[in-house]
Amino acid sequence: MTLTMMYASDATIEVIKKVDSLPSIAVEDSSSAYDEIFKMKFFKSLVSDLTVISLFNVDRHYRTVSYDASEVVVQNKDMNYVLRYKLIKDDSGSLNISLKILADNSDVFSKNYKIKNPKMYMFVSHTIAYDVNKFMGKPSVEWMKRKVIFSRVVSPRHSELVIADYTLLYQHVVVKGGFNLFPKWANKKQTSFYYTSLDSARPTLKYVDIQTGKTNIIKSSDGMMICSDVNVAGTKILLTMAPNGQPDVYIYDVKTKNTKKITKYGGIDVGAQFMNDNTIAFVSDRLGHPNIFSKNLESGSVEQMVYYGKSNSACSSHGQYIVYKSRESSNAFNGNTFNLHLISTETDFIRRLTAVGVNEFPRFSDDGDAIIFIKNYKQQSSIGIIRLNHNKNYLFPLKYGKVQSMDW
Amino acid sequence: MKNILISSVVTALLVLTGCSDKDPVVDESANITTKPTAETASSNTSVDTVVVDSVQEEMVENTDSVVSSNSGDISSLEKDFTSVYFDFDKFTLDGSNADKVSTGAKIANSAASAFTVKLEGNCDEWGSDEYNFALGLKRANAVKKALVAEGVDANRITMVSYGESNPTCSDKTQDCWAQNRRVDFKLLP
């Protein structure tokens, strides 16, 4: 057992943000262009994003005012901040937005935005929230601007791959028809992705370049063929393959196309994630039940990471932290609960992140600020976002189908 | 300063659930990589205009040719096989299931001897991660081992796992979950 230091050297901070200690913000719409439906959609998206950045008590009333009015709307006079914006349609059909933030009736921030396709308004809303977060001097929420790719099962052995924003307001089906699972971004720019096709005789890993629309076959394997993770540079990928029914972790070099087997245990080794270029975290049942281990790729040494729970079957890592999925009931006859837990690899810190339902597929954002996950609860499938520093979870329900796996 | 209580979330898109206890300080060394194209909005202001990159995708149609198992001989022979069922979280074959595999082995070595046997492992609905897929595969592998023990050539057998994505029913009942924990036999030309 490790000695527990008296000081919180792993720097866990107890953040209790009471409702009444957050500054207030209201939103005023000065738009004259666009119809009421579009204006309301944009307003709701903006209010939602301002709520998710978790820095304000966001007033939800829809107020209109002239953009150049020297004072805020009378109902907003006691707000700490007022965000005022104007949607403008230009001759090319692009959506332009002028925006400013007022505090004590003076401008403290202003910026203009433009997007060619007004249907993608939600991406502007996310960018605005990102900028507001930056203006408030808070750690980056870059993840808000990123795209999510997920597989949605629509009927048995029929799924589609969808690219979306983090709220699922925008959705674009990029691969339809067939049975395609486990999509994974191939690079940081999110211009290409890998996915598993189960339509041909053997499970096949494919690579799609979004910009050209070209699809390449990477590899096939009997049994299983999944891209579990991609390294930061996009040069190596961790695969799960199962020739002869033996699931193991492999590493694939994108340039040389060489594959090397990483795990040797005769049971199940799957779900590997890069902790850094030389170390992986993965799921193995080598101790009798699925649990989380790490492996040093140079020395080959394996270490157990989690000492709690009897069935820990998925993980994601960032810095010293690992988030994993733990089964908390063992019921063949009723609903089961799977919850996400967060541990530090350097101290005894552990924290449960979710409460009910089947919570799985955790993925850290690149900046470690947020975790995205899938939640299935009471026949509703949703994507969830956990703001680790703010003690808040947000859920974005899917209108149809069931999310099978995803990446961002 | 007026205190404003957060009202319950009203938008159709947003549900707030609480969480508890301590927060970690996570690594915050993010590099901000946005590269907006800045243009001056008008001559009266010096405010940069941020052009938000459009998300440009093309629809990538799935043009795989599915290996058809619907020729007359194959589909009628497939019906002679009986799916094998498993207990919750298990991949071992019990008595009655072992008999089904024996029958399957006989068909594989006689009427279906020209074909490859494809074993499809499946799970109930509790989880879609890789571990669950591996569990489905272990079920298929248990059936494969039993077929080989009954004299079927291992090289004629191929396996795949569909996890929980190929259910035969979707009711939230014990009976339905039991029906989904199974291995199906298919034939390939």
Structure description:
Chain A folds into two domains: 120 residues, TolB, N-terminal domain (Rossmann fold, 3-Layer(aba) Sandwich), CATH 3.40.50.10070; 265 residues, Neuraminidase, CATH 2.120.10. Chain A is built from two helices and 30 strands. In chain A, helix 1 packs parallel to helix 2. The N terminus of chain A is likely disordered. Chain B is an alpha+beta fold. Chain B has a domain of 117 residues: 2-Layer Sandwich (60s Ribosomal Protein L30, Chain: A). In chain B, 26% of the residues lie in helices and 18% in strands. In chain B, helix 2 packs across helix 3. The N and C termini of chain B lie far apart (76 Å). The N terminus of chain B is likely disordered. The interface between A and B is large, with 137 and 84 residues. Strand 6 of chain A pairs parallel with strand 3 of chain B.
Low-confidence stretches of chain A: 1-19
Low-pLDDT stretches of chain B are 1-46, 54-58, 61-70
Q: What gap, in angstroms, lies between the N and C termini of chain B?
A: 76 Å
The Cα radius of gyration of chain A reads: 23 Å
Q: What is the CA–CA distance across the termini of chain A? A: 36 Å
How many beta-strand elements of chain A?
Answer: 30
Indicate the percent of residues in helices of chain B: 25-40%
Question: Which two protein chains have the largest interface (Cβ within 8 Å of the partner's Cβ), and how many residues from each?
Answer: A-B, 137 and 84 residues
